[in-house]
Amino acid sequence: MDFELIRVEDGRAALGESPARDPETGDIWWIDVTGRKLFCLDTEARTVRHWETPEFPGFVVLTGARKPAVGMQTGIYRFDPATAAFERLVPFERDGHRFNDATVDGTGRLWTSTMALDAQPASAEILLVAADLTLKPVAQGLTIPNGLAVDLDRNRLFYSDSHPDIQRIWTSELDIRTAQTGPARLFATTGDLKGRPDGAALDERGHYWIAGVDGGELYAFGTDGQVADTVPVPFPAPTKIAFHGTDGRSVAVTSKQMGEDGGYIALGRLPETAACGLMQPYWTAGALT
Fold first, then answer.
1. pTM for the whole thing?
2. pLDDT for the residue numbered 289
3. What is the mean pLDDT of the chain?
4. What's the rounded Cα separation, in Å, for the pair 193 and 175?
5. Is the pLDDT of residue 287 over 80?
6. What is the C-alpha to C-alpha distance for residues 145 and 12, in angstroms, rounded to an integer?
7. Which pLDDT belongs to residue 286?
8. Which of 70, 88, 212, 250 is the most exposed place for a label (fewest CB within 10 A)?
Protein backbone atom coordinates (compact mmCIF):
# COMPACT_ATOMS: atom_id res chain seq x y z
CA MET A 1 0.00 0.00 0.00
CA ASP A 2 1.27 3.46 -0.87
CA PHE A 3 0.29 6.60 1.02
CA GLU A 4 2.23 9.58 2.32
CA LEU A 5 2.78 10.55 5.93
CA ILE A 6 3.77 14.16 6.62
CA ARG A 7 5.47 14.84 9.93
CA VAL A 8 4.37 17.72 12.17
CA GLU A 9 7.43 19.81 12.98
CA ASP A 10 6.14 21.02 16.38
CA GLY A 11 5.77 18.75 19.39
CA ARG A 12 8.92 16.70 18.93
CA ALA A 13 9.34 14.03 21.60
CA ALA A 14 12.21 11.92 22.85
CA LEU A 15 9.92 8.88 22.91
CA GLY A 16 6.57 9.77 21.38
CA GLU A 17 3.76 7.30 22.01
CA SER A 18 0.03 6.66 22.21
CA PRO A 19 -1.70 8.91 19.62
CA ALA A 20 -5.39 9.31 20.51
CA ARG A 21 -7.90 11.43 18.57
CA ASP A 22 -10.74 13.22 20.31
CA PRO A 23 -13.83 12.19 18.29
CA GLU A 24 -15.68 15.41 19.19
CA THR A 25 -12.99 18.07 18.75
CA GLY A 26 -10.65 16.35 16.29
CA ASP A 27 -7.65 17.11 18.53
CA ILE A 28 -4.89 14.49 18.66
CA TRP A 29 -3.23 13.75 22.00
CA TRP A 30 0.02 11.85 22.59
CA ILE A 31 2.78 11.58 25.17
CA ASP A 32 6.57 11.70 25.46
CA VAL A 33 7.57 8.84 27.74
CA THR A 34 11.15 9.76 28.60
CA GLY A 35 10.62 13.52 28.13
CA ARG A 36 7.63 13.40 30.55
CA LYS A 37 5.23 15.48 28.45
CA LEU A 38 1.62 15.39 27.29
CA PHE A 39 0.94 16.88 23.83
CA CYS A 40 -2.21 18.06 22.07
CA LEU A 41 -2.43 18.92 18.35
CA ASP A 42 -5.26 21.11 17.09
CA THR A 43 -5.66 19.48 13.68
CA GLU A 44 -7.42 22.48 12.12
CA ALA A 45 -5.01 25.19 13.29
CA ARG A 46 -2.02 22.78 13.23
CA THR A 47 -0.86 24.16 16.56
CA VAL A 48 0.61 22.03 19.35
CA ARG A 49 0.36 22.55 23.11
CA HIS A 50 2.21 20.55 25.73
CA TRP A 51 2.27 20.10 29.51
CA GLU A 52 4.84 18.51 31.81
CA THR A 53 3.82 15.26 33.54
CA PRO A 54 4.89 14.56 37.14
CA GLU A 55 5.95 10.98 36.34
CA PHE A 56 6.97 8.93 33.31
CA PRO A 57 3.79 8.51 31.23
CA GLY A 58 3.02 5.43 29.15
CA PHE A 59 -0.27 6.20 27.43
CA VAL A 60 -3.06 8.73 27.00
CA VAL A 61 -6.72 7.95 26.25
CA LEU A 62 -9.76 10.22 26.20
CA THR A 63 -12.72 10.00 28.59
CA GLY A 64 -14.67 12.81 26.89
CA ALA A 65 -14.12 15.96 24.84
CA ARG A 66 -10.84 17.52 26.01
CA LYS A 67 -10.73 15.04 28.92
CA PRO A 68 -7.51 13.01 28.67
CA ALA A 69 -6.46 10.28 31.10
CA VAL A 70 -2.76 9.44 31.39
CA GLY A 71 -1.23 6.20 32.66
CA MET A 72 1.97 6.91 34.61
CA GLN A 73 4.05 5.30 37.38
CA THR A 74 1.63 5.43 40.31
CA GLY A 75 -1.67 5.16 38.48
CA ILE A 76 -3.98 6.44 35.78
CA TYR A 77 -4.67 10.16 36.14
CA ARG A 78 -7.37 12.42 34.76
CA PHE A 79 -5.87 15.66 33.37
CA ASP A 80 -7.57 19.07 33.25
CA PRO A 81 -6.02 21.19 30.45
CA ALA A 82 -7.50 24.37 31.95
CA THR A 83 -5.69 24.01 35.28
CA ALA A 84 -2.87 21.58 34.29
CA ALA A 85 -3.90 19.46 37.29
CA PHE A 86 -3.68 15.65 37.48
CA GLU A 87 -6.21 13.69 39.55
CA ARG A 88 -5.59 10.00 40.22
CA LEU A 89 -8.41 7.70 39.12
CA VAL A 90 -6.75 4.26 39.28
CA PRO A 91 -4.00 3.58 41.85
CA PHE A 92 -1.00 1.49 40.84
CA GLU A 93 1.62 0.81 43.49
CA ARG A 94 4.58 -1.14 42.16
CA ASP A 95 7.99 0.43 42.64
CA GLY A 96 10.12 0.70 39.53
CA HIS A 97 7.20 0.15 37.15
CA ARG A 98 4.89 2.26 34.99
CA PHE A 99 1.97 1.91 32.62
CA ASN A 100 2.89 1.36 28.98
CA ASP A 101 0.53 0.65 26.07
CA ALA A 102 -3.29 0.90 26.14
CA THR A 103 -6.37 0.56 23.98
CA VAL A 104 -10.08 1.28 24.40
CA ASP A 105 -12.34 -1.35 22.85
CA GLY A 106 -15.63 -0.72 21.07
CA THR A 107 -17.59 -1.09 24.31
CA GLY A 108 -15.56 1.63 26.05
CA ARG A 109 -13.41 -0.68 28.19
CA LEU A 110 -9.75 0.16 28.82
CA TRP A 111 -7.06 -2.50 28.36
CA THR A 112 -3.51 -1.59 29.33
CA SER A 113 -0.08 -2.91 30.23
CA THR A 114 2.60 -2.22 32.82
CA MET A 115 6.36 -2.80 32.69
CA ALA A 116 9.54 -2.23 34.65
CA LEU A 117 11.30 1.09 34.09
CA ASP A 118 14.46 -0.87 33.27
CA ALA A 119 12.55 -3.45 31.14
CA GLN A 120 13.33 -6.27 33.55
CA PRO A 121 12.46 -9.57 31.81
CA ALA A 122 9.17 -11.27 32.66
CA SER A 123 8.05 -8.45 34.99
CA ALA A 124 5.40 -6.92 32.71
CA GLU A 125 1.71 -7.71 32.40
CA ILE A 126 -1.52 -6.98 30.52
CA LEU A 127 -4.41 -5.60 32.59
CA LEU A 128 -8.08 -4.78 32.19
CA VAL A 129 -9.37 -1.68 33.98
CA ALA A 130 -12.70 -2.88 35.34
CA ALA A 131 -15.83 -0.72 35.61
CA ASP A 132 -15.07 -0.12 39.31
CA LEU A 133 -11.59 1.16 38.30
CA THR A 134 -9.72 -1.84 39.72
CA LEU A 135 -7.00 -3.60 37.73
CA LYS A 136 -7.67 -7.16 36.58
CA PRO A 137 -4.71 -9.32 35.40
CA VAL A 138 -5.02 -10.70 31.87
CA ALA A 139 -1.49 -11.90 30.96
CA GLN A 140 1.84 -11.94 32.81
CA GLY A 141 5.48 -12.80 32.21
CA LEU A 142 6.10 -10.20 29.50
CA THR A 143 8.97 -7.74 29.16
CA ILE A 144 7.94 -4.81 26.92
CA PRO A 145 4.19 -5.25 26.42
CA ASN A 146 2.66 -3.44 23.45
CA GLY A 147 0.36 -3.96 20.50
CA LEU A 148 -2.92 -3.87 22.40
CA ALA A 149 -6.05 -4.02 20.23
CA VAL A 150 -9.49 -5.62 20.54
CA ASP A 151 -11.31 -7.18 17.57
CA LEU A 152 -14.96 -7.27 18.65
CA ASP A 153 -16.12 -8.93 15.41
CA ARG A 154 -13.79 -11.90 15.91
CA ASN A 155 -13.81 -11.91 19.71
CA ARG A 156 -10.10 -11.60 20.28
CA LEU A 157 -7.57 -9.51 22.16
CA PHE A 158 -4.17 -8.73 20.62
CA TYR A 159 -0.96 -7.90 22.46
CA SER A 160 2.77 -8.12 21.74
CA ASP A 161 6.20 -8.08 23.33
CA SER A 162 8.63 -5.62 21.72
CA HIS A 163 11.80 -6.96 23.35
CA PRO A 164 14.42 -7.73 20.67
CA ASP A 165 14.76 -11.31 21.91
CA ILE A 166 10.99 -11.93 21.80
CA GLN A 167 9.21 -9.93 19.03
CA ARG A 168 5.97 -11.89 19.19
CA ILE A 169 2.29 -11.02 18.81
CA TRP A 170 -0.41 -13.08 20.52
CA THR A 171 -4.19 -13.27 20.51
CA SER A 172 -6.57 -14.49 23.19
CA GLU A 173 -10.19 -15.43 22.71
CA LEU A 174 -12.37 -12.78 24.34
CA ASP A 175 -15.89 -12.98 25.72
CA ILE A 176 -17.14 -9.48 24.92
CA ARG A 177 -19.95 -9.64 27.47
CA THR A 178 -17.82 -10.65 30.47
CA ALA A 179 -14.35 -9.48 29.28
CA GLN A 180 -12.96 -12.91 30.15
CA THR A 181 -10.02 -14.03 28.02
CA GLY A 182 -8.81 -17.48 26.98
CA PRO A 183 -5.29 -18.88 26.62
CA ALA A 184 -2.82 -16.90 24.50
CA ARG A 185 -2.07 -18.16 21.00
CA LEU A 186 0.84 -17.05 18.82
CA PHE A 187 -0.44 -14.82 16.02
CA ALA A 188 2.76 -13.60 14.34
CA THR A 189 6.43 -12.80 14.85
CA THR A 190 8.53 -9.94 13.46
CA GLY A 191 11.97 -11.55 13.68
CA ASP A 192 12.28 -11.57 9.88
CA LEU A 193 11.02 -8.00 9.46
CA LYS A 194 12.98 -4.75 9.78
CA GLY A 195 11.02 -3.47 12.79
CA ARG A 196 9.99 -4.82 16.19
CA PRO A 197 6.28 -4.84 17.18
CA ASP A 198 5.13 -1.72 19.02
CA GLY A 199 1.76 0.12 19.12
CA ALA A 200 -1.16 -1.18 17.07
CA ALA A 201 -4.65 -0.55 15.68
CA LEU A 202 -7.22 -2.49 13.63
CA ASP A 203 -9.03 -1.78 10.38
CA GLU A 204 -12.57 -2.78 9.43
CA ARG A 205 -11.37 -6.02 7.79
CA GLY A 206 -9.84 -7.14 11.05
CA HIS A 207 -6.33 -6.50 9.74
CA TYR A 208 -3.90 -5.74 12.54
CA TRP A 209 -1.69 -2.69 11.91
CA ILE A 210 1.44 -2.32 14.03
CA ALA A 211 4.37 0.08 14.12
CA GLY A 212 7.70 -1.57 13.30
CA VAL A 213 9.87 0.31 15.76
CA ASP A 214 13.52 0.76 14.65
CA GLY A 215 12.52 -0.49 11.19
CA GLY A 216 10.98 2.64 9.66
CA GLU A 217 7.84 0.75 8.60
CA LEU A 218 4.23 -0.04 9.47
CA TYR A 219 2.95 -3.60 9.02
CA ALA A 220 -0.61 -4.71 8.37
CA PHE A 221 -1.19 -8.36 9.26
CA GLY A 222 -4.15 -10.21 7.80
CA THR A 223 -6.47 -12.18 10.03
CA ASP A 224 -4.30 -15.24 9.33
CA GLY A 225 -1.19 -13.60 10.83
CA GLN A 226 0.57 -13.06 7.49
CA VAL A 227 1.88 -9.64 6.43
CA ALA A 228 -0.63 -8.11 4.01
CA ASP A 229 0.91 -4.62 3.62
CA THR A 230 4.11 -2.77 4.47
CA VAL A 231 4.17 1.04 4.57
CA PRO A 232 7.38 3.10 4.96
CA VAL A 233 7.28 6.07 7.34
CA PRO A 234 9.34 9.31 7.37
CA PHE A 235 11.43 8.41 10.42
CA PRO A 236 13.35 5.30 11.56
CA ALA A 237 11.43 4.39 14.72
CA PRO A 238 7.61 4.57 14.52
CA THR A 239 6.02 3.66 17.84
CA LYS A 240 2.24 3.55 17.38
CA ILE A 241 -0.43 4.02 14.72
CA ALA A 242 -3.95 5.39 15.22
CA PHE A 243 -6.80 5.75 12.72
CA HIS A 244 -9.03 8.80 12.94
CA GLY A 245 -11.09 11.32 10.99
CA THR A 246 -14.76 11.25 10.07
CA ASP A 247 -14.33 8.06 8.02
CA GLY A 248 -11.38 6.34 9.69
CA ARG A 249 -9.07 6.95 6.73
CA SER A 250 -6.82 9.50 8.45
CA VAL A 251 -3.70 8.14 10.12
CA ALA A 252 -1.48 9.41 12.94
CA VAL A 253 1.87 7.80 13.79
CA THR A 254 4.16 8.67 16.70
CA SER A 255 7.90 7.99 16.82
CA LYS A 256 10.99 8.07 19.01
CA GLN A 257 14.19 9.98 18.37
CA MET A 258 17.15 8.11 16.92
CA GLY A 259 20.15 10.41 16.72
CA GLU A 260 19.07 13.59 14.94
CA ASP A 261 15.96 11.99 13.43
CA GLY A 262 12.55 10.91 14.71
CA GLY A 263 10.46 11.99 17.67
CA TYR A 264 7.79 13.51 15.43
CA ILE A 265 4.12 12.72 14.99
CA ALA A 266 3.15 12.25 11.34
CA LEU A 267 -0.26 12.53 9.70
CA GLY A 268 -1.56 10.96 6.50
CA ARG A 269 -4.57 9.48 4.77
CA LEU A 270 -5.29 5.99 3.49
CA PRO A 271 -6.10 5.65 -0.21
CA GLU A 272 -9.80 5.38 -1.08
CA THR A 273 -9.27 1.76 -2.14
CA ALA A 274 -8.05 0.77 1.34
CA ALA A 275 -10.21 -0.47 4.19
CA CYS A 276 -11.11 2.15 6.79
CA GLY A 277 -9.44 1.98 10.17
CA LEU A 278 -11.28 1.51 13.45
CA MET A 279 -11.22 4.65 15.60
CA GLN A 280 -10.66 4.48 19.35
CA PRO A 281 -13.72 5.61 21.34
CA TYR A 282 -13.81 7.33 24.70
CA TRP A 283 -12.98 5.28 27.79
CA THR A 284 -16.37 5.05 29.51
CA ALA A 285 -15.74 3.22 32.77
CA GLY A 286 -18.75 3.35 35.12
CA ALA A 287 -17.07 5.72 37.57
CA LEU A 288 -16.28 8.21 34.78
CA THR A 289 -19.80 8.67 33.42
1. 0.96
2. 46
3. 95
4. 32
5. no
6. 24
7. 61
8. 88
Query: pLDDT of 55-65, one tens digit each?
Result: 999 999 999 99
Query: CB within 8 A of 167, min separation 6: which ones?
Result: 160, 161, 189, 190, 191, 196, 197
Q: Which of 235, 208, 203, 204 is nearest to 219 (CA)?
A: 208
Distance CA 112, CA 134 (A): 12
User: How many CB atoms are located within 10 Å of the residue 2 CB?
Assistant: 8
Rounded CA-CA distance 176/154 in Å is 10
Averaged pLDDT for residues 131-146? 97
